[in-house]
């Protein structure tokens, strides 16, 4: 007898077919109705049991969370709520789940509670839906780049450089913690370390992607990224996934065009392919928002918000224009910002980004031409000598979702910049080589994958859109 997924049973399997189905029990009502789910879809298949035909001990084991195998016939449903159901002939218990101790009972659990049960939380409708959307988004991202002439490039995870110059790195070492070899000056001697130098987990694959773009033309990375920033916020992870396209011969305008088109296409993909899950997540969000004060509720429901992004142009604004808007804004004048905006050159905090997106422009915003002082060393200096060709994309509810730039391709300018920032030329000798041999205008950006998933699913905390989140003081599982 053929084994089917729940999705197949609900959509394509002919009636009166004899079927086998494996899954986990969601609920078992009245010793008669099993709602069975196997993860293939949000919906359950109803299995109807004639309890008189079955052993009482077996029926007892059919509780929420148990893994079972059901044999039966797919028939038109007699009851409401579903079109088809299985008339059960035979049940095998793979593994039972004790209702006294199984934490995922059919009732509402808080997201905080479920975070502590991260190995089981994907058995809830919410997390299963989020993770299916996450999977679909990854596929859409690869598909977008593969269809547009990009090559998938694997950046190293262990590196010797700090691409972002922020110094928020996890060290990688095999030296003896208690008794490390020391130099004459008394410092830890990394020459004796595994790689013969100090190394860390990558904060970005960009620098290496630049090397590859300068031969393959258009490349992208999609991999894990690590930042030891002690930010306990709903938008920061210590381990997250980043997508970093890098394109030879692209200037900043072409870079912005690509980023906008890319985001729209991957969101369109899930609108087309994840309808049920998104509808479920939209309803979840509406229910959650009912518990909030009116002022904090979002103006658009989830699907409307996703369609809005796909259908409208992102607003492109220079940093200088944004500062003017912020300086003259109500919250700034009324001293409502935690970090007041007084002068040009101030770094933008997430409260400012969200004001611009959510209150002022009410659409995704691309901010560009930032002050050189607040951006990384590799960004191309503008003619004014004080701004760089940087761009950040800001999203409602999220703040910064993309950070990118046109890269400094001029050897002399780059060297000056590095010297001013105290970056050792010897450490980045190979990066400078790229400017010595066949240098060219090039650009790229980084999209924080979990921030995209947050936006796409309407979840509120980044810890709830990655299977096993790594955050300060938390690396369980
Ligand atoms: O703006 P960032 O730091 O840019 C770079 O790393 C560049 N090298 C990218 C490039 O041009 N190739 O990071 C890019 C994006 C951010 O906009 C944000 O979405 C995400 O990565 N991000 C994080 N996501 C989750 N947790 C964190 N701690 C993050 N830090 C950055
Ligand atoms: Mg950034």
Automatic annotation (TrEMBL):
Offer a single GO CC term for the protein: cytoplasm
GO BP annotation list? asparaginyl-tRNA aminoacylation
Q: What is its main location?
A: cytoplasm
Q: Where is the Aminoacyl-transfer RNA synthetases class-II family profile domain?
A: 131-467
What CDD domains does this protein map onto?
AsxRS_core (cd00776), EcAsnRS_like_N (cd04318)
Give the UniProt subcellular location, in the record's own words: Cytoplasm
Q: Name one GO molecular function term.
A: asparagine-tRNA ligase activity
Q: Which residues form a coiled coil?
A: 271-298
EC number(s) per UniProt? 6.1.1.22
Record's keyword terms, sorted: Aminoacyl-tRNA synthetase, ATP-binding, Coiled coil, Cytoplasm, Ligase, Nucleotide-binding, Protein biosynthesis
The first-level EC class reads ligase
Q: Which reaction does it catalyse?
A: tRNA(Asn) + L-asparagine + ATP = L-asparaginyl-tRNA(Asn) + AMP + diphosphate + H(+)
Q: Which family does it belong to?
A: Belongs to the class-II aminoacyl-tRNA synthetase family.
How it assembles, according to the record, is: Homodimer.
In its UniProt entry, what is this protein called?
Asparagine--tRNA ligase
The protein's organism comes out as Kriegella aquimaris
Q: What lineage does the source organism belong to?
A: Bacteria, Pseudomonadati, Bacteroidota, Flavobacteriia, Flavobacteriales
């Amino acid at each position: 007898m053929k084994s089917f997924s729940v999705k197949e049973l609900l959509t394509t399997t002919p009636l009166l077919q004899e079927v086998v189905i494996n899954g986990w029990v969601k609920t078992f009502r009245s010793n008669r109705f099993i709602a069975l789910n196997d993860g293939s879809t949000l919906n359950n298949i109803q299995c109807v049991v004639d309890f008189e035909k079955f052993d009482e001990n077996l029926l007892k084991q059919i509780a929420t969370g148990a893994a079972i195998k059901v044999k039966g016939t797919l028939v038109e449903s007699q009851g409401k709520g579903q079109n088809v159901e299985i008339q059960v002939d035979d049940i095998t218990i793979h593994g039972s789940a004790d209702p006294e101790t199984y934490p995922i009972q059919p009732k509402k659990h808080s997201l905080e509670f479920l975070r502590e049960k991260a190995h089981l939380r994907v058995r809830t409708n919410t997390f299963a839906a989020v993770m299916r959307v996450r999977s679909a988004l990854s596929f859409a991202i690869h598909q977008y780049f593969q269809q547009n002439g990009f090559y998938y490039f694997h950046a190293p995870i262990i590196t010797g450089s700090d691409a972002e110059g922020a110094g928020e790195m996890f060290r990688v070492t095999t030296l003896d913690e208690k008794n490390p070899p020391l130099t004459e000056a008394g410092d830890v001697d990394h020459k004796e370390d595994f790689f013969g130098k100090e190394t860390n987990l990558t904060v970005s694959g960009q620098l290496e992607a630049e090397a590859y773009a300068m031969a393959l033309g258009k490349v992208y990375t999609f991999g894990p990224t690590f930042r030891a920033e002690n930010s306990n916020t709903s938008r920061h992870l210590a381990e997250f996934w980043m997508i970093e396209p890098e394109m030879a011969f692209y200037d900043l305008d072409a870079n912005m065009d690509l980023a906008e088109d890319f985001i729209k296409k991957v969101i369109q993909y899930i609108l087309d392919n994840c309808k049920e899950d998104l509808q479920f997540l939209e309803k979840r969000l509406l229910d959650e928002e009912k518990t909030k004060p009116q002022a904090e509720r979002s103006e658009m429901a989830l699907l409307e918000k996703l369609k809005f992004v796909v259908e409208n142009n992102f607003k492109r604004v220079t940093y200088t224009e944004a500062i003017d808007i912020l300086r003259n804004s109500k919250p700034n004048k009324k001293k409502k910002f935690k970090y007041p905006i007084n002068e040009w050159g101030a770094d933008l905090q997430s409260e400012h980004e969200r004001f611009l997106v959510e209150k002022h422009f009410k659409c995704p915003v691309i901010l560009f031409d930032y002050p050189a002082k607040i951006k990384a060393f590799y960004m191309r200096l503008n003619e004014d000598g004080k701004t760089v060709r940087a761009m950040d994309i800001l999203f409602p509810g999220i703040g910064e979702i993309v950070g990118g730039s046109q890269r400094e391709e001029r050897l002399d300018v780059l060297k000056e910049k590095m010297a001013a920032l105290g970056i050792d030329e010897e450490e980045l000798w190979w990066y400078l080589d790229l400017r010595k041999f066949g240098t060219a205008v090039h650009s790229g950006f980084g999209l924080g994958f979990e921030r995209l998933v947050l936006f796409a699913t309407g979840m509120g905390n980044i810890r709830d859109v990655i299977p096993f989140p790594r955050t300060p003081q938390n690396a369980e599982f």
